[in-house]
């Protein structure tokens, strides 16, 4: 089992405060966060939702690559974007949905087989599983 770690230091109140997310496991850097970067304009700062989008797009791409390779049709390229919608919901704010868009170059695969494999990757991707209860859509196509 492998654990990954990140920490956040936050200073101040929600609307006027700010923080820094540090990717501890990889030592890949620090990222500034604010409420405004979350609910308004990023202005050079990230948000929890953008970090979820990054994790989801990477995880999905790896899951799809693994499934395609296991089936004997390894991909040449997979481009995945994840759009995480965040907004008012109930008594506060919530992630209201995630849209995955994937375009891939996979020599020798039939479009219907690619579609089924892409859907399966969405269903079993560990980040998708962690986000159970969130509506996740998929737009997948071959280049």
TrEMBL record:
InterPro entries: KH_dom-like_a/b, OsmC/Ohr_fam, OsmC/Ohrsf, OsmC_Ohr_Peroxiredoxin, Peroxiredoxin_OsmC. Residues 1-11 have a biased composition (Polar residues). Residues 1-27 are annotated as: Disordered. This is Osmotically inducible protein OsmC. It comes from Saccharopolyspora shandongensis. One of its GO terms (biological process) is response to oxidative stress. Gene3D superfamilies: 3.30.300.20. One of its GO terms (molecular function) is peroxidase activity. It comes from the Bacteria. Transmembrane segments: none annotated.
């Amino acid at each position: 089992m492998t654990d990954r770690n990140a920490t956040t230091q936050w200073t101040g109140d929600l609307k006027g405060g700010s923080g820094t997310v540090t990717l501890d496991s990889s030592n890949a850097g620090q990222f500034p966060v604010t409420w405004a970067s979350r609910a308004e304009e990023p202005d050079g700062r990230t948000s929890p939702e953008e970090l979820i989008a990054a994790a989801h797009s990477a995880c999905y791409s790896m899951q799809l690559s693994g499934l395609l390779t296991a089936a004997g049709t390894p991909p040449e390229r997979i481009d995945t974007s994840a759009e995480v919608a965040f907004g008012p919901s109930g008594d506060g704010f919530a992630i209201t949905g995630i849209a995955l868009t994937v375009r891939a170059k996979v020599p020798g695969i039939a479009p219907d087989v690619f579609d089924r494999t892409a859907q399966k990757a969405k269903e079993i991707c560990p980040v998708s599983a962690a986000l159970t209860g969130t509506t996740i859509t998929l737009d997948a196509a071959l280049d």
